[in-house]
Amino acid sequence: MAEGEAAESLDIPTKEVSSPSFAVAFGGGGARGLAHIHVIEALDELGIRPVAISGSSIGAIMGAGMAAGMRGAEIRTYASSVLASRAEVASRVWRARPAKFSEMMEGGLRLGQFNAERILKVFLPTEIPETFERLDIPLYVTATDYYRHRLEVFNSGDLRSALAASAALPAIFRPVVREGMTLVDGGIYNPVPFDILEGKADILIAVDVVGVPTIRSPKAPSTIEMMFGTTQLMMQSIISMKLEKKRPDILLRPAISGFRVLDFLKMDAIMSGTASIKDELKRAVEAILEQDRDKVASLRREARGHT
Known about the structure:
The chain is α/β, with parallel strands linked by helices. The chain has eleven helices and eight strands. Strands 1, 2, 3, 4, 5, 6, 7 and 8 form an eight-stranded mixed beta sheet that branches. Residues 1-17, 100-105 and 107-112 have low confidence and may be disordered.
């Protein structure tokens, strides 16, 4: 007798014995977000296909790869090929330069600020489509509306501009203009957007790769290090307040605080230093599934007692 039929014969709702659904929220954190690849690989190995994904900044980009149907191993291979050398990264950045001087001056000269949409165009894998509607899994991408002081969540229409807006870290990238809004990094308002997935799945997984400043040196932190470090502290305070209201079923925090937001060329070290997160996720999922099995067994015993 099939499991669903057995449940029906004992008056146990089929929902109680079906496999739980999962949703995943990938947080922002720049290069530290490469650790998200371990999470995607672990879910692949567990045979878990999320029913919904959300992401901020690098988390939105990683989430887009998974939502597009890429497996973790594929994302790892692609990222490794792109970040294999400083020369390869420099070549892609050069290709993202404005074709005309007038484009460089668009919106005023912004020294040191890159166009996030151009950068993503040369760095994203071809598997990531141009629109949300062509994704295999629903994706929710966050961005911060700079002038209206609020979080924006995109899940339809142009995907590339939404990803660019979500990753538009101030001082590094210029804001992205979309639908009349001036948009910057989604992590400013929601570093780990697990709350926007509430009610969309039975089990909610959140991955926090924000970290905190830990690298010490005899010299005082540089201006850019202070900016990134204080931003980390701000984001962690936001996460703490959100966790006081509601916690995801599984919260993962890879050991990424030793890496800086722009340490993309240290991919091998990041992946090596965060590898244990795969087993941590697998153990957490197994514990939840075991609780689910115990619940079903209890319901069956109770049902038998009434027959």
